[in-house]
Design goal:
The structure is a homodimer.
Chain A lengths: L3 H20 L11 H18 L3 E5 L6 E6 L7 E7 L19 E3 L8 E3 L7 H16 L6 E7 L7 H9 L8 E4 L11 E6 L1 E10 L5 E2 H4 L6 H10 L22 H7 L6 H8 L12 H4 L5 E10 L8 E2 L2 E10 L5 H15 L5 E10 L2 E2 L5 H14 L4 E4 L6 H9 L3 E3 L15 E3 H22 L1
Parallel strand pairs in A: 3-6, 3-7, 7-17, 8-16
Antiparallel strand pairs in A: 1-2, 2-6, 4-5, 5-18, 8-15, 9-13, 9-14, 10-12, 11-13
């Protein structure tokens, strides 16, 4: 791979421009208003894979958004890497908090990205990170250095639960057969502190609806005499955490994997600047489950967060109304051994149980997925570690992430293979938030690191 | 007044059509998008007062929406009645819960209004009730039976706090001098149970904002580690009531007027059908402060209700985000002796005090007003009672209402006169809610009752 740096220097500008064109497509999977754009994005993925050197690429229709599958098989006796990524993006709301339009990418310098970062919805999650793999393939094919077989499975529903991908995987086990799955949809600690994600949290996402009276009421005539669905909803949600910020749903913690003191001490060695963390978020103090550090709270501990709440009059001025209904979107991040189906049921039963008599509640499960922990003594992890060491000049730190890629646990179950999470984004890249961005340096570093993984993994496997 | 029924029969259709035209103007005072319509409505009021027989009518500009003032002075030695009403209406949201467009009035029959009701925003609150006074004046002028002087003060900011009316009143005490103030902006118990409102609750309306991190965050990467403003807001709001549904703000109840057992027993005599009440609202049970009946909870007890709440992702589908901010609109209904300025300060201090360290909170007072209790041994009340008895064939019941007309306490302070609240709407008329309506029977009954009040009040006063 002596010439990867040279290839990057020659093609850097084109690689950035291609990504920018891809980011212009508003492929928001959650919102039906963008369904045409999602299809456009799937076609762009197909074209990019063919251009990069895949032998065949097909777009597979599903009950939801399509899946793009491509492959380049050079020799059946060589190992096969399956690259997974997604071309759909989170909704851009709240739009007015973006400094530039979410689907008009621009490059700006930031404190952590002095060489510039591409600002756009999906820049990091996951269009930019997925596209690193396309460009890494292009390099290996163009320079005749592809050492093994490669398959790409790029979906359009990661941000809405990957329901149709699960069906596709179950129905195409042979086509998807591989020796290792490679995903770049996570982050690393810092540009000078490379890390590999070894754990993901599971997820249970639900929507709740509290119904009181059959219509909105005048708060003067009825105030104090009937259950106000918003007041009740706040009471119900508030009761889901106790005074130590532990979740109060019965049985919720029963299966939670408790780390040993030794494992926690090992985790605590990862560099973490609490003051810088607080300063970056403009908060005076962190907040969370008693007895755990910030890095533990957002990785090895389960959580319950309200992601959205609404009800009553939210316009300008004042309206003295008691709303008939109040709503919230609530997600729980889960840790290994917690089953998301079971947690969704526990939540539903508990939420229905705590509803006072004056209201009725409805819980609608949205989606979810199991958590995942990857071992670090495998060929896959070792090859990834060596690839980072070569590209970054220092050994990466294994790190559990708080995020979720629900499909990873399913891959292991259905395809019997391990996943390596090679993420190149930073926590501060604002994924899922306004002003999402992805460092140009990180983008190019990813393209540089990936071919080393191919090389080392093939060498170690054969 | 022998010929009022005849006059009504002759003019009924026109009276209804005129009201329908008036209701077509979307004079929503809270929303700047409707400011032109508010002006159009003020001009319609002016024209209607001139048509009805006022000698002079002027539109007074204010820092907000204009005030319409008209008068007909027949003899300085005779008593003067000041009619107050408002031509502005509540926002129509949520629009999609209306069965017909809020500003395209239609007449439909209902269980409680077998002769039909006009469905439109403002039908009852307060365009319809205000217009009864205009048509009653027309009758008295046309039939040469106006027994006293009359002044009209019709404002366009009642639904947003009447701030500019307060200034107008303070600056025009002489112009507004009167012997009694007459307002139809309340309800009565039922069409066969006439009642006169003798008390109003005060109001303090605030908006709160809870700020956590400086931007929306990914709920996986940060979930459990930073204070989620929505979770915190629900906890803070939930803590505002204790397990007996009493408000927990310190000093809040200190000045609350406690009724004697005798007074409460007197109140309990008013007909109230709890089962019918619950059935009409589709609720299994009522809910409120322990130790008080439904009729007490919504009239003689203070309350705290969330009128709107919002934050995070509220669109279709799922977004795994921790919002940077969460908001709520909160109103407190107050009882006599509670000062709304003081309560607003108590709320603000308490809400700031209970905010945990990981967030900052901002409380913005919207508007408010004092409560009011009117004595029943005055000439004004006696004349009103007799007017109802003549029109309805039965004596009206004095009743404390849970609603607020903040300006009433101010009238007493500035103009030194008492107010009579002659309301003809029903609680089920859905004021402030989708499908607001006003019974045609009630509208005509109001026009019939008002001239009797003029007659009896003049006779008793002179």
């Amino acid at each position: 791979m002596q010439n990867i740096k040279e290839y990057l220097t020659t093609n850097k500008e084109r690689f950035i421009n291609e990504l920018i064109e891809f980011l212009k497509i508003p492929s928001v999977s959650a919102d039906p208003a963008f369904s045409e754009d999602v299809i456009t994005a799937s076609k762009a993925v197909k074209k990019s894979l063919l251009d990069a050197g895949c032998d065949t690429v097909e777009i597979y229709e599903t009950d939801g958004h399509p899946i793009v599958y491509g492959e380049k098989i050079i020799n059946a006796d060589l190992p096969t890497i399956l690259v997974y990524g997604h071309y759909d993006v989170q909704p851009a709301d709240p739009i007015d908090l973006w400094d530039s339009p979410p689907f008009e990418p621009i490059i700006k310098k930031t404190e952590l990205h002095p060489e510039g970062a591409v600002f756009a919805r999906g820049a990091c999650d996951d269009k930019g990170q997925m596209y690193m793999h396309v460009k890494a393939l292009e390099f290996m094919v163009q320079t005749n250095q592809l050492p093994c077989n490669v398959k790409f499975m790029i979906e359009g529903e990661e941000e809405v639960g990957s329901n149709n991908l699960a069906v596709f995987v179950a129905n195409n086990k042979e086509k998807l057969a591989n020796d290792i799955i490679l995903i770049s949809d996570t982050g690393m600690i810092a540009n000078d502190v490379p890390s590999i994600t070894t754990g993901l949290r599971g997820l249970s996402y639900v929507e709740v609806e509290v119904t009181g009276p059959n219509r909105d009421l005048h708060s003067g005539l009825y105030g104090g005499a009937v259950a106000n669905p918003i007041n009740i909803l706040t009471k119900m949600i508030a009761s889901l955490h106790d005074e130590n910020n532990r979740i109060t749903i019965p049985v919720f913690y029963d299966k939670v994997e408790e780390l040993s003191q030794k494992e926690r001490a090992e985790m605590a060695k990862a560099p973490f600047d609490l003051e810088g963390y607080q300063k970056a978020l403009h908060i005076k103090t962190v907040y969370g489950e008693k007895g755990y550090t910030t890095n533990e709270r957002n990785s090895i501990r389960p959580t319950l967060d309200v992601n959205g709440i609404w009800g009553g009059y939210t316009g300008e001025g004042a309206k003295t109304v008691i709303a008939g209904k109040a709503y919230a979107k609530i997600s729980m991040r889960l840790v290994p051994n917690q089953d998301w189906h079971e947690i969704t049921e526990l939540f539903t039963a508990h939420f229905e149980h705590i509803a006072p008599e004056g209201v009725t509640v409805k819980v609608t499960p949205h989606h979810g997925g199991q958590g995942y922990v990857t071992p670090i003594d495998t060929i896959g992890y070792k090859a990834a570690s060596k690839a980072y060491e070569t590209a970054f000049g220092k050994k990466p730190i294994p790190q559990r992430s708080g995020g979720s890629i629900p499909i990873v646990a399913l891959f292991e179950k259905e395809l019997k293979s391990k996943t390596i999470l090679m993420g190149f984004g930073l926590d501060s890249d604002a994924i899922h938030s306004p002003n999402e961005h992805f460092g140009v340096w990180n983008y190019l570093k990813g393209i540089e690191t990936i071919p080393y993984f191919y090389e080392y993994f093939t060498a170690m496997s054969t």
